[in-house]
Amino acid sequence: MEMQKQKIGKWLLGALLILVVPNCLFWILEPKVSLSRGVFVAEYLLIACLYPLINRKLFITIWILFAVYDLVYATSSLFFMDFMEMVHALAKIPELALIDWLKWGGLLILFILIIFTLVKGLIRYEASYRIMHLRFLWPLIVLAGVVFFVSKKEIVSVPTWSVVKAVQHAVFVSTAKHNIDYLGSAAKTVFWQEPAAAATNKEALILVESWGLLTDQKLHSDVVQPLYELVQNHQYTIREGTASYKYLTQAGEFRELTGCVFHYYLVRDKWVKDSSLLIKKQEQGYHVIGVHGNTSKFYRRNVFWPVLGVQEMYFIEQLNTLQLPLCGSNEFRGICDTVINTWLLNNMNRQPDRKEFYYWVTLNTHLPLVEVHDEAYNNFARQWKEQGITENTLQMAYQQKGLFRDLAGKLSKPGSPKAHILLVGDHAPPFIDPADRKMYDANRVPYIELIPN
């Protein structure tokens, strides 16, 4: 009987170790880093089963490589629809400054060293009690699989499942249609029906980078307040609302243009074209113009914009010929959004009688932000800091308010075009710190419709 108790005790201790060691570092990181990950990750149990079958150095290498993947997936899966989109984003990140490479490289090395130390400790325990083999681990593997497949992913997650799904969707495209998210579109609600004959022949959809729905309603009202000055001057009627969102900018574009979030490699499917707002505007006689202050190659906009209905495109490659000023961080530097405000309204005035639909994806509030610390910002931020609003949130709110102030000021000037405009957020800012992320609604973004009187 005593022997049986000892065996049970060793099994329980071994099971506890095999569950805690791979996950404990992530538990420590979670209060400071926004992670999308279960309490436990199932793959570590499967990797542990390889220990008796392969060389020890190879085992440690596989464990560390998976831990790095686990980290990347946990910090990124909230923002990308599948693994291939993560890979594309990583491959297209603009060149970082040397100090940034050193900082992130140092943190990665520290992470690897901690993982190495943990797995070595697990191997040392294995030498005495043999916990890393299938005969010991199969009950935990079965339990983890059951928990995962009954959709308790907040308890057990399987990061490699996204790789399997990505390959499946890319190779067997017909199955991918079962993985479309129908979120609806504020833009299609506003613009899908052809306007009355007396209405303006200039329309614009402005997708505002990282404009999330603030949980503090008073701060949200402060941010959009400049647009309401157009109401006070009786120039525009304003309607506000919110829309569902998932993932980052490309998903936001697909959502607003088609009502759905789907994989990039589906963009040429007939149903996408049939659902596209921009194709619909062409059918209504509008000339569709797209503008974005960064390169046409990021997110492959030079490929999918024409497919979705953009007939005339302006990116930094074209706008640079006008010698327009640049703004933003080194990572996402491009034509200043306030300058594109001017360009947009001037372009509308060039052919006032032509029906035109503008699609503009803003840029300068893309993370990382170039922070502002002038007197105007300090005056804006002071009252909100006293109410517990974080610095990163206030920087984002202040700069978005500046964009709205600039647009409202230019729309109120004599001679400005009377355009029907919808401003809508693509997603909440993808801050790393959970304290910043909780300042925004996790599922909704705001929109504001400007209707000329």
Automatic annotation (TrEMBL):
The entry's keywords: Membrane, Transmembrane, Transmembrane helix
Protein name in UniProt: Sulfatase N-terminal domain-containing protein
Domain of life the protein comes from: Bacteria
InterPro entries: Alkaline_phosphatase_core_sf
Transmembrane segments: 12-29, 35-53, 60-81, 101-119, 131-150
